[in-house]
Design brief:
mainly beta, 12-stranded antiparallel β-sheet, 7-stranded antiparallel β-sheet, 5 helices, 10% helix, 43% strand, globular
Length: 474
């Protein structure tokens, strides 16, 4: 009798463990949550821990909580199965100023382009900075307010925006009347993904060449996307079926990429060339009155010598990507000696610089240039349809701020609580894990500033279809 009761007990216990396993790993109710406290070991018992310890190790201090002192920090985020949506609650305490004003967090969307979907966590300018500017939303008549209040100063100084990239800014055709419609040709060799603006009066005709360096082990497909404002109106992909072996270092021959879109409404369009770092683009030809590269230019070492560029940005970041690219670079009247591989050099022009454009001169390619604006080969081709951004390069001049930012909740214990929502469709996930990032641009380990952010915990709330809904789909 005792043996029979013992057998029943173990069967019942096994059944409970089975139910617990199904609940934790299958999430039959369609929800799953976990909370990581970084002042304790990240327990995986019962499946309730989901955040790894952050990396790299030199960018945080493992004290009572995580003290972030360098940008960015990477985590892996575990979930037992696929879900549709994710809400993150981040409890933190910022010690930041106008030099490091923005905290953003997000998930990796494209592992080839290393592209993250970022959401705002905290913005110093909108939380703790005292200003008499007027906050606007997309519901306001922004263009009318700018006409009435910004006649004597540049619009980019009158209005700043945050978290509304590619706003529906009304670009009047009159601005382009004196700009002759022409065929612009660029012979810059550019490596990896790039994005540029064009102004089209009727047809978009684009031609360029590309080649595959075959340095990486992965395939190197290419996608060309065309946007008006934030709306994708055309996409075309080219598979990597080239005969050269990946990772062999054997370069392919240049091949042609042609795109023709007829009868487009007149206006500004954005073209994205999506490719990994194995792809080099060259000999771009496009029917447009402008050609402005958005935020970054990676000039391949095969680019022509003595390259002259212009930008509307007053800040420039440079990385040397190849030892043959060691050189001196001139940005406005500043000279930078570039003699260290992969170091991020930075030049920022002060308030005394009030020009609309600034010159960049370099001797050869092999450099990655980034800035909070656009780049072009000359002033006639330069145009930026975006307003200035409320980030660490903001110059404290705006009368208006255009944003949909929601302020964080301030708790009684002195911490802040930010809530972020993500649609998980198309987000990269491998081995039941997402790649998660916390970014504070400008926060550097070796800086003498005392800026940091203390992260107490992060809570993840996943939601999706129930087990019954999934069964019904079959």
């Amino acid at each position: 009798m005792k043996l029979k009761k013992l057998r029943i007990f173990f069967l019942f216990l096994s059944f409970l463990f089975l139910l617990l396993f199904v609940y934790l790993k299958v999430s039959p109710l369609g929800t799953w949550e976990c909370k990581s406290r970084f002042n304790n070991f990240n327990h995986l018992f019962l499946g309730r821990g989901c955040f790894s310890q952050p990396s790299p190790n030199d960018r945080f201090l493992d004290e009572r909580n995580i003290k972030m002192v360098g940008d960015p920090l990477y985590f892996s985020l575990y979930s037992p199965r696929n879900f549709d949506e994710l809400e993150l609650e981040i409890k933190f305490k910022p010690n930041l100023d106008k030099n490091t004003p923005v905290i953003e967090a997000g998930l990796l969307v494209d592992k080839d382009l290393w592209h993250y979907q970022l959401k705002p966590v905290y913005n110093y300018w909108l939380e703790d900075y005292s200003s008499d500017w007027q906050e606007l939303s997309l519901k306001d008549n922004v263009e009318e307010l700018l006409k009435e209040n910004c006649q004597e100063i540049s619009i980019n100084y009158c209005l700043a925006q945050y978290n509304l990239d590619q706003t529906d800014r009304n670009i009047l055709p009159e601005f382009f009347i004196e700009r002759e419609e022409k065929n612009i040709n660029h012979d810059l060799a550019l490596r990896g993904h790039h994005s540029f603006y064009v102004y089209i009066k009727n047809d978009l005709d684009l031609k360029l060449e590309a080649k595959d360096l075959n340095i990486n082990q992965d395939r190197s497909p290419i996608t060309v996307d065309v946007y008006t404002n934030n709306d994708l109106i055309y996409t075309e992909s080219l598979a990597d079926d080239r005969p050269e072996k990946e990772g062999s270092g054997e370069e392919s021959d240049y091949f042609d990429l042609d795109l023709s879109l007829a009868s487009l409404p007149e206006g500004v369009y954005r073209v994205d060339l999506k490719a990994n770092d194995d792809i080099v683009f060259n000999n771009l030809s496009v029917s447009s009155s402008i050609l402005s590269w958005r935020r970054r230019l990676w000039l391949h070492e095969s680019s022509e010598q003595n390259i002259d560029l212009v930008t509307d940005a007053k800040a420039l970041q440079i990385k040397v990507q190849d030892p043959i690219a060691y050189q001196s670079l001139k940005f406005s009247d500043q000279d930078l000696v570039l003699d260290e591989l992969y170091r991020q050099y930075e030049a920022i022009l002060g308030h005394e610089y009030n020009d609309l454009t600034y010159d960049i001169s370099l001797k050869r390619g092999g450099l990655l240039l980034e800035g909070p604006g656009v780049f072009a080969l000359n002033e006639d081709e330069l145009f930026n349809p975006n307003y200035s951004r409320l980030d660490r390069f903001y110059e404290e001049r705006a009368k208006f701020v255009l944003t949909d930012y929601e302020k964080v909740k301030r708790l009684d214990d002195g911490y802040f609580l930010a809530k972020l929502k993500f649609n998980l469709a198309g987000v990269y996930r491998e081995d039941n894990k997402y790649n998660f990032i916390i970014s504070i641009p400008g926060l550097r380990v070796k800086d003498e500033s005392d800026n940091f952010v203390e992260i107490k915990n992060i809570k993840a709330n996943f939601s999706g279809k129930t087990l019954i809904e999934k069964i019904n789909e079959f």
